[in-house]
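Give me the fold.
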Amino acid sequence: MQDETSKIGINVHSAEVKGVMFPTFVTYTDSETWAGNIHPAQALRQYRDESVGDAKAVVVGKNSNGFTLADPKHRGRLDVVGFDTSVPAVIADFVRE
């Protein structure tokens, strides 16, 4: 059984259920994830359709395991692997685009 805290799409789902409008979701992960009942890309797609049409997703992974949590065809996503002092500025620039 997976730990509830590893449900990677829960932040998007919670925002949608509570009616909160976020322009960007930033997720930090150790790359040990579990989608739960809905894949994060699908949750974000639904959120965009029903709440914020241009919501962005940033996923910062501790290491690469060869997949993305966001829809790779959507331009409003940024995948980051690893973390150093330049990452906050890269994220900020992406969010401002």
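The chain has one domain: 4-96.
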